[in-house]
Design goal:
The chain is an alpha+beta fold. The chain is built from 3 helices and 4 strands; from the N terminus they run E-E-E-H-E-H-H. Strands 1-2 form a two-stranded antiparallel sheet. Strands 3-4 form a two-stranded parallel ribbon.
Length: about 130
């Protein structure tokens, strides 16, 4: 379900990124994905990146905010040494309690985000 709000000449919407975006190719000028991508295993994150790209209008901008390996969440993260394609683990007990994150996550490094971006045709031409 996509929820819309209007403010002046800006339309905001809240959408299910794996379902709603595939139904709206080329619809958005800007997509902001705020602290969501780390809740997805690598293969789903690749799919989400592809959906983001396809949902953007030509010249559109994509902003991804992700809690990464270098963030506080990475302290004692059991997936730290694992390849990103297999990384999907719970946070340390301390970090899970502090941040209220009980689900497994895939924390990514900046490099992992670049690799995720490069796995989607067309993303290589976008500015970072």
């Amino acid at each position: 379900m996509i929820l819309f709000a209007r403010l002046s000449n800006i339309n905001f919407c809240k959408a299910d990124l794996l379902e709603d975006l595939q139904m709206n190719p080329g619809r958005f000028d800007t997509i902001l994905c705020q602290r969501t991508i780390h809740y997805l295993p690598h293969s789903e994150a690749q799919r989400a990146a592809s959906l983001f790209f396809n949902a953007l209008r030509p010249g559109g901008c994509l902003f991804i905010s992700a809690s990464g390996m270098e963030s506080e969440l990475g302290v004692a993260y059991s997936g730290f040494q694992q390849d990103v394609t297999k990384r999907f683990h719970r946070l340390s007990t301390e970090m899970a309690a502090k941040h209220g994150i009980k689900e497994p996550v895939c924390l990514r490094s900046f490099w992992n985000i670049l690799v995720l971006r490069s796995s989607v045709p067309g993303f290589l031409s976008l500015e970072m």
